[in-house]
């Protein structure tokens, strides 16, 4: 039996080598051909990264698709024209929300329906990497490490492997209309006092708002007095701090804001509604991120950026993240895709994205450019960035969003006891993590 097994292994290895030698027309063996899996010819096998010593050349006949949010259309289309001129590879933009991409890739990737290049926040990396959906970034590893801060490189790496091509760092802050309120309030008490002279909910006129249904923003209120996501720098999923004493105080503050400042339900305000209110002067103070700035500038709003208001003397801790490009491991054109991901994340590209969309660059050289460093908008967001905590990138984070969002909705819309709602959410999170 041992001899038979050894002979079988030798024959198998010889067959693999022969098959490999027959693919000489593919650069680096990276073209991915559909394979027959249970009769489904659309199922694909992941591609392979290229070693640092190999020069990337687009595969013959390559054409690419990139997923990104609609606020990046202008930038992507302009860069796509330059990329096609340089490499002869066309690029098609498809709008897919950044936080939806990894879940969509789970099914569309193996089926050969997903984009070649994706753009999503680093907290989704763990799930994608563990599922084998993403191509490691070996071709440009040295450049990424040398051009970006250590914490940025760490954010787009998982389990010691670099996957991302960093584009920007981000957090949200307080955006205020200077024509309505000359100086940004520094505390929540000041906001409550200002609202008494400005707000009129019966006329859709509000002092202070954010996307109420998004835990991404609501986290800041829970964290302002001691709540947290996971222990050990957001790596220990057994330690959840979303129902501790500080988190309950933060949720109680949310209920007070509902009563005194925003007597509407969470579903009554989203990004577009809030933008409209801010643009027509019906909203004075907006919690938002760099992605909102282009519209505010285009409409001539006289705005400023400031840190989030303090609560009981404590700075509000926002979520922060690193937005990066990633390459679909199932791409039929992995070399062209890696070239595009790099092309969109170079210092030149980041400077252009800053100019077009006011994004905070991850590239240190761009961040230190006088034009960027002296930008009042960037200064304002960086002031809040110093009081931020990176979103967890462990896969267990995926179990958090729905339960905690439901809990805050119950507290806000239904007046449910904060402690009860948060305890219930944490129990659901623990059960979900345990089930996985």
From TrEMBL:
<keyword id="KW-0762">Sugar transport</keyword>
<dbReference type="Pfam" id="PF13416">
    <property type="entry name" value="SBP_bac_8"/>
</dbReference>
<keyword id="KW-0732">Signal</keyword>
<feature type="signal peptide">
    <location>
        <begin position="1"/>
        <end position="17"/>
    </location>
</feature>
<feature type="region of interest" description="Disordered">
    <location>
        <begin position="24"/>
        <end position="55"/>
    </location>
</feature>
<dbReference type="InterPro" id="IPR006060">
    <property type="entry name" value="Maltose/Cyclodextrin-bd"/>
</dbReference>
<protein>
    <recommendedName>
        <fullName>Maltodextrin-binding protein</fullName>
    </recommendedName>
</protein>
<keyword id="KW-1003">Cell membrane</keyword>
<feature type="compositionally biased region" description="Polar residues">
    <location>
        <begin position="32"/>
        <end position="45"/>
    </location>
</feature>
<comment type="similarity">
    <text>Belongs to the bacterial solute-binding protein 1 family.</text>
</comment>
<keyword id="KW-0449">Lipoprotein</keyword>
<dbReference type="InterPro" id="IPR006059">
    <property type="entry name" value="SBP"/>
</dbReference>
<keyword id="KW-0472">Membrane</keyword>
<keyword id="KW-0813">Transport</keyword>
């Amino acid at each position: 039996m041992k001899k038979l097994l050894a002979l079988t292994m030798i024959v198998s290895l010889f067959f693999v080598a022969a098959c490999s030698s027959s693919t000489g027309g593919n650069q680096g063996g990276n073209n991915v051909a559909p394979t027959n899996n249970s009769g489904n010819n659309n199922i694909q096998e992941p591609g392979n990264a290229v070693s640092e010593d190999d020069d990337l050349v687009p595969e013959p006949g390559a054409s690419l698709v990139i997923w990104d949010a609609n606020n990046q259309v202008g930038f992507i289309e302009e860069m796509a024209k330059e990329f096609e001129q340089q490499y002869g590879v066309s690029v098609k933009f498809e709008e897919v929300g950044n936080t939806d991409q990894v879940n969509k890739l789970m099914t569309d990737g193996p089926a050969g329906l997903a984009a070649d290049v994706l753009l999503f926040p680093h907290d989704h990396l763990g799930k994608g990497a563990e599922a084998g959906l993403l191509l490691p970034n070996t071709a440009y590893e040295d450049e990424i490490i040398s051009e970006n801060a250590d914490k940025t490189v760490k954010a787009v790496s998982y389990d010691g492997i670099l996957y991302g091509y960093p584009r920007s760092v981000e957090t949200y802050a307080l955006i205020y209309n200077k024509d309505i309120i000359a100086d940004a309030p520094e505390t929540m008490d000041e906001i409550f006092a200002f609202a008494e002279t400005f707000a009129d909910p019966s006329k859709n006129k509000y002092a202070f708002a954010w996307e109420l249904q998004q835990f991404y923003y609501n986290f800041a209120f829970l964290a302002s007095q001691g709540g947290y996501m996971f222990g050990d720098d957001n790596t220990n999923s057994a330690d959840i701090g979303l129902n501790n004493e500080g988190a309950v105080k933060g949720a109680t503050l949310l209920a007070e804001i509902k009563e005194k400042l925003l007597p509407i339900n969470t579903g009554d305000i989203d990004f577009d509604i809030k933008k409209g209110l801010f643009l027509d002067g019906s909203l004075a103070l907006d919690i938002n991120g760099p992605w909102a700035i282009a519209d505010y500038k285009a409409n001539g709003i006289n705005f400023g950026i400031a840190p989030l208001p303090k609560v009981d003397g404590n700075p509000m801790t926002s979520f922060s993240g690193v937005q990066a490009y990633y390459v679909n491991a199932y791409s039929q054109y992995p070399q062209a895709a890696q070239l595009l991901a790099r092309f969109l994340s170079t210092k030149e590209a980041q400077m252009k994205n800053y100019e077009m969309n006011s994004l905070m660059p991850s590239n240190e050289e761009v961040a230190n450019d006088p034009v960027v460093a002296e930008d009042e908008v960037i200064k304002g967001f960086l002031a809040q960035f110093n009081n931020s905590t990176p979103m967890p990138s462990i896969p267990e984070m995926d179990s958090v969003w729905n339960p905690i969002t439901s809990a805050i909705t119950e507290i806000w819309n239904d007046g449910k006891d904060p402690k009860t709602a948060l305890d219930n959410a944490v129990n659901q999170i623990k059960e979900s993590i345990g089930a996985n």
